[in-house]
Structure formats: structure tokens, C-alpha cells
Design a protein that fits this description.
Distance between the termini: 36 Å
CATH class: Alpha Beta
CATH architecture: 3-Layer(aba) Sandwich
Number of strands: 5
Strand order of the largest sheet: 2-3-1-4-5
Order of helices and strands: EHEHHHHEHEHHHEHH
Mean pLDDT: 91
CATH superfamily: P-loop containing nucleotide triphosphate hydrolases
Strand content: 5-15%
Low-confidence stretches: 219-229
Radius of gyration: 18 Å
Helix content: 40-55%
Number of helices: 11
Oligomer: single chain
Number of domains: 1
Length: 229
């Protein structure tokens, strides 16, 4: 497979709590683009995993929520991540290849690693890895799971603070791996600390992704509302 087959895809990956979904939504609304949601995709392809080809994914699916973070060492949780071993990236590529390629598609997914994406890009700017500053991530995730129901849905019936601490430490290991691979492959990393608005980040990504021509095309036809600007 050549990079030209996925030349229409723009990848927004990186670390959890960096605001990937927010920036993706802004771009999707502003340029009227479809989004490939990595979390929803995983729910689709999880049932296709086998112990022989995706052992880490199958082990994760068998593990109760209560045992995925609480009481485990961050290094252990990190090493058990299916995405670290590239187990499900093939499913993502298959689905993207089967989708229309007549306009750009935004991929919102933390799972792809630089070493996986590099061979699929015509130019490095087709992908970006957003990596949150640790304090920024902790604040974002704490707010996300402040609702007990949301915390229970993710961590089960355990102390959410303890589970969150392990998750944050695991994610810092993930970010370090992403940063290392990005350096080796020459792919762009953007550090996110909350000092810039999501709109500012979206504008930078739009320029890097080459979406300005889409903006010019839209200017020639009426829009229903101001939308995302």
C-alpha cells in the first residue's frame, strides 16, 4: 500500500487529555469534514480480535474495569496497552481504505504511533501528535471524571482517585514513547498546556493540513449558520 491511498487522511493523535476531540470537532465543523472517531471504531473492531493476533487486546477485553488501573503499577499498564504493540492499527487502516476519499478525513485517535503513521504519509504535516503538559492533563481528566457515574463507567467500583493516578502515570509513559518515535520519524509534536485556545490550535492544524483551499471553496457557496467559524 502506498502513501497515496491515504493521502486524504489527516491524523490527530497523541496523549489523552490534550484536547484532540475538541480541536477535531472545530476543524470538522469549520471545513465540513467527516471524522473517524477512534473510540467508536474500537467498539466496532474489538469483536474481530483473536488471542493469536491481538493477545493484548483480548486480555484487556477480559479484564474487569476495576482491575485495569487500580492496584497496578503504571509501567505494567503501559506495557499491556494494545496500541503500544500495534495490534489494532490494521483495523483502522482497513476502515479508512474502505471509506470515500473525495475529501479530507480527520482521524481523532490517540492509539496510532509515529512509527505506524510515517510510512502512510505523503508529507509529515498530514499527522500531528498533541501531547499535554502533565498538570493540564490531570486537570482535564479530573474534570472529565468528576461525575461519579462517568468515573464508574470507566473505572468500575473502585476509588476513582487511585485509578486516575495510575492512568495519569501510564499516560506520561505513553507520551514519552510518542515523543521518542516522533523524533525518530520526523513527525510533528505539539505541546499543549492550556495557554492557547482550541481555536488557535485548530487554526495551526488547518494550515499544516492544507485545509485553506477548502475554506476558499466554501466561501463560494452559502452556509446555513456561522457554525464553528
Amino acid at each position: 500500500m502506498g502513501a497515496d491511498e491515504l493521502a486524504h487522511v489527516r491524523w490527530i493523535a497523541g496523549g489523552t487529555g490534550a484536547g484532540k476531540s475538541t480541536v477535531t470537532r472545530i476543524l470538522a465543523e469549520r471545513y465540513e469534514l467527516p471524522v473517524y472517531d477512534g473510540d467508536r471504531a474500537e467498539a466496532r473492531y474489538a469483536g474481530r480480535c483473536t488471542p493469536e493476533r491481538q493477545p493484548y487486546m483480548c486480555a484487556l477485553l477480559r479484564t474487569p474495569k476495576e482491575e485495569r488501573f487500580a492496584g497496578r503499577a503504571p509501567e505494567e499498564v503501559f506495557r499491556a496497552m494494545p496500541s503500544l504493540h500495534g495490534e489494532t492499527f490494521g483495523f483502522v487502516v482497513e476502515e479508512l481504505l474502505a471509506s470515500p476519499a473525495d475529501r479530507p478525513v480527520l482521524v481523532d485517535d490517540f492509539r496510532p504511533l509515529p512509527r505506524e503513521l510515517a510510512p502512510l504519509l505523503e508529507r509529515p504535516e498530514q499527522a500531528v501528535f498533541l501531547l499535554p503538559e502533565p498538570g493540564f492533563r490531570r486537570r482535564n481528566l479530573a474534570a472529565r471524571y468528576a461525575d461519579p457515574a462517568a468515573a464508574r463507567a470507566t473505572y468500575g467500583d473502585v476509588d476513582p482517585a487511585a485509578a486516575l493516578a495510575v492512568r495519569v502515570a501510564r499516560d506520561e509513559l505513553w507520551d514519552a514513547e510518542v515523543r521518542r518515535q516522533a523524533r525518530e520519524t520526523g513527525l510533528p509534536v505539539v505541546d499543549v498546556d492550556g495557554s492557547r485556545t482550541p481555536d488557535d490550535l485548530a487554526a495551526d492544524l488547518a494550515a499544516a493540513f492544507g485545509l485553506s483551499s477548502l475554506s476558499a471553496a466554501r466561501a463560494g457557496r452559502p452556509t446555513s449558520s456561522s457554525g464553528g467559524g
